[in-house]
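Changelog note: in this version the structure field was regenerated for every chain. One regenerated record is shown below for reference.
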Amino acid sequence: GAAFTAVVLGQFANAFACRSTTRPAWSIGRPVNKLLIGAVIIELVMLLGFLFIGPVASLLEHASPSVAGWAVASLSIPAVLGTDAAAKRRRQQRGAPR
């Protein structure tokens, strides 16, 4: 469950990181794309369903992450955003086409 949660949260962060090809996610401002916001909400609801709805969790062989599991999984968000920002900065320093 914790590994699956980390992947889903990482994809959540990636969706926001991809809003610009040159600027980090935190410098863009509040998201206004209603489809993106809706997709992320659906993604999080599905994650919770996959982890906490008994028959679904059993079918997928998932278990709810422990508190430590949630903490480690949540680190995927800053990891993805930080890596994306570093790649964008490096690409700008090299003068690569955007």
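Spot check on this record: Residues 34-52 form the longest helix (19 residues). The chain has a mean pLDDT of 90.
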